[in-house]
């Protein structure tokens, strides 16, 4: 009877120790999953920053090219208009003083035309930027509504899929924060083949 009692005692200790090991492994696995999710999120943020820097670099290059092209266009327009005014006023037939005065008058007129063109271009660009900003705001609002609906559906149905949730449904730690500690502890994304009878 003593031996039987001791055997039962040792059996319980072994089971307790085995359960403790399982708990520790489960905890370590959960921690590893959390680390992987956090690392994936950091990598995503780094990629976004790099992509943003590349977009800004490209925008700066486009702006410089555009500015250079605008200067060349202004110079071309200036020369064409000065030549036209000179021809219209028969400037070559004037004496030196009148020619200088007329050339100065032409220059002021051309610069005024260029300034008017520039103001018109800036106004058109401002209107275009305003329309783009409005469209961006509409897109952000649509994305926010879609994300809110996704999180709503996730909260309603995720517990039913616990243990059978396909990878990608739960995106990151932000999604996990929607649930209680029990769900987060038991959560483990799995690759699920819905055509395999074992998963039914």
Oligomer: single chain
Helix content: over 70%
Q: Low-confidence spans: pLDDT under 50, at least 5 residues?
A: 1-5, 190-195
- The number of helical runs is 4
**Radius of gyration from the CA trace?**
37 Å
Tell me, rounded to a whole number, the average pLDDT.
78
Query: What is the number of beta strands?
Result: 0
Q: Tell me, what's the shape?
A: rod-shaped
Strand composition percent: under 5%
Structural class, from secondary structure content?
A: mainly alpha
How many angstroms separate the termini?
Answer: 47 Å
Q: What is the makeup of the main sheet?
A: none
Order of helices and strands: HHHH
Describe the structure in your own words.
The chain has 200 residues and is mainly alpha-helical. Helices cover 80% and strands 0% of the residues. It is built from 4 helices and no strands. It has helices spanning 2-88, 96-157, 173-176, 181-186. Helix 1 runs antiparallel to helix 2 (96-157). Residues 1-5 and 190-195 have low confidence and may be disordered.
């Amino acid at each position: 009877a003593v031996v039987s009692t001791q055997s039962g005692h040792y059996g319980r200790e072994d089971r307790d120790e085995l359960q403790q090991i399982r708990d520790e492994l489960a905890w370590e696995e959960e921690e590893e999953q959390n680390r992987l999710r956090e690392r994936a999120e950091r990598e995503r943020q780094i990629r976004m920053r790099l992509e943003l820097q590349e977009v800004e670099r490209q925008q700066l290059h486009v702006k410089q090219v555009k500015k250079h092209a605008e200067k060349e266009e202004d110079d071309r327009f200036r020369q064409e208009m000065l030549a036209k005014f000179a021809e219209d006023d028969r400037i070559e037939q004037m004496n030196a003083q009148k020619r200088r005065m007329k050339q100065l008058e032409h220059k002021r007129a051309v610069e005024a035309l260029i300034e008017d063109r520039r103001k018109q271009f800036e106004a058109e660009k401002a209107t275009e930027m305003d329309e783009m900003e409005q469209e961006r705001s509409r897109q952000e609002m649509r994305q926010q509504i879609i994300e809110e609906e996704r999180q709503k559906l996730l909260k309603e149905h995720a517990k039913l899929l616990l243990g059978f949730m396909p990878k990608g449904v739960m995106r990151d730690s932000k999604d996990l924060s929607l649930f209680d500690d029990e769900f987060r502890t038991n959560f483990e994304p799995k690759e699920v083949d819905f055509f395999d009878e074992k998963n039914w």
